[in-house]
Amino acid sequence: MNYLKHLNQENIDTWNKDNPEQQFSYEDCANGLKENVDHAVGSIIDSLLQKYYDGKFVVDSEYIFEGNEAVLQTDAIYLPDFKALVLERIESVKESVITNK
What we know:
4 helices
């Protein structure tokens, strides 16, 4: 998946301009976004499994919004885009599990 195309490059540029001592490249943010999406997917799956075993079906949102400093500090992606990437990643994980059975 190409995470670069999902970044808000204007926000990253603004961050870098305002924080010359702590700049992030687009690649830093794209790699961080991949980490964030993977972390969110893993956390959602873990939460769903735990909730399933507890007889509940709610995902704790606290797991979804943790992440990489480059992405969080620069607002490198809009929340709806992040949610869409997480859902896409969950679908790909689901598909890989189904096809590997």
